[in-house]
Design a protein that fits this description.
- Belongs to the short-chain dehydrogenases/reductases (SDR) family.
- Helix 1 links the parallel strand 1 and strand 2.
- This protein has one domain: Rossmann fold.
- It has ten helices and seven strands.
- The protein starts with a strand and ends in a 7-residue tail after the last strand.
- Strands 3-2-1-4-5-6-7 form a seven-stranded parallel β-sheet, with helices on both faces.
- By secondary structure, the chain is of the alpha/beta class.
- It binds nicotinamide-adenine-dinucleotide (NAD).
- The site of nicotinamide-adenine-dinucleotide has 31 residues, from helix 1 and helix 8.
Length: 241
Amino acid sequence: MTERVAIVTGAAQGIGAAIAKELAADGVKVVVTDINIDGATKVAEEIGAVAKRLDVSDPEQANAVVAETVAELGRLDILVNNAGLVPYTPFDDLTIEQWRRTFSVNGEGLFNMTKAAVEAMKANEYGRIVNIASNTFVAGTPNCADYVATKGAVVGFTRAVAGEIGKYGITINAVAPGITASEGVFTTGHGEGFDYVVPMQAFNRRAVPADIAPAVAFLASEKAEWVTGQLLVVDGGHTRN
Ligand SMILES: NC(=O)c1ccc[n+]([C@@H]2O[C@H](COP(=O)([O-])OP(=O)(O)OC[C@H]3O[C@@H](n4cnc5c(N)ncnc54)[C@H](O)[C@@H]3O)[C@@H](O)[C@H]2O)c1
């Protein structure tokens, strides 16, 4: 994928950082973005990439980062919408404020970045958009209804938009990881989920971010031309629908 240019959101750590590394290893010029610029800079330095601060919930920042990428690197071929909040709150304690906050990043962030990227990709009649969903949408995982609802939104958005942007040569797909040992998982209540989930997987170990990245890289590649509007579950066989 040499010469291709990608933006990965939420790439300062966890699954996003693994995706940035995987794409860079495939020869892609990666723009590592995150609200945490120090973390993004560290990842970018490691893979010889560019880092940019980006809060995906802000449409102006989304537009600016896409415009800067095109100005500095000449084009935009790949967008990976990975940035996300992963809260863990029982429904009894869930508030409308938290619901809005989770949707502002996981839902509006997805919209802001996709809107800006599609405009840039139209120019080259080529694009690959990969949205990070979650297998919690398939499993109906409890104690994170706001989060699971945003991931349902990711799947619905992916399916709906696919039919409208194929005419520009752009594909859009979603990848649904299962529980994965990222930094974020261990700073929330999700980490305890491994004890419950690992025995249900086909493989008896915890997933790590590097287990998720190759599926994303495939959907971001030229070879995935005939795949669009799909949800690819990457969870070691935890959910088998
Ligand atoms: N780890 C899992 O078990 C798991 C499972 C399924 C899906 N996912 C999804 O994978 C993605 C990455 O998750 P992770 O586990 O690596 O999380 P993480 O918390 O380790 O990393 C998330 C990154 O997103 C960044 N971020 C947060 N808000 C942002 C914003 N407004 N704008 C830009 N960046 C922002 C954070 O700074 C952080 O670097 C998320 O979309 C998450 O929902 C994770």
